[in-house]
Amino acid sequence: MSECKLDHSNEDVVKKLESQQAFLPADLYEKLQQYLQQDHTQDMLNELFHLLKKYDLSSAEEQEARKKRLMLILNN
Fold it and tell me: Per its UniProt entry, which superkingdom is the organism in (predicted)?
């Protein structure tokens, strides 16, 4: 994933999550929804946005890597 200089709002991340719902495991989607109801740093919002961005277009290996990173974020 390339670095982006834009800051993404919580609303941006929620919209991106919703757009990728069909491609994410249901439990991960639900956990991310709950996670995004809390306040997070700008860096975290940006990271979440980019992990979700084009998730559907990623290879199976890339999706697995992103899923692992998302789970790591959720478990910390």
Answer: Bacteria
Q: How far is CA 58 from CA 20, 49, 64, 71, 76, in A?
A: 12, 14, 9, 17, 25
Taking CB atoms within 8 Å and a gap of at least 24, the contacts of 24-31 are 24/55, 24/67, 25/67, 28/67, 28/70, 28/71, 28/74, 31/74
Q: Copy the structure tokens of residue 39.
A: 């306040």
Contact predicate 75/57, CB 8 Å:
no
Joined tokens for residue 35: 């996670």
Measured in whole angstroms, the distance separating CA 14 from the mean position of its chain's CA atoms is 9
Place of tokens 């999550």: 17
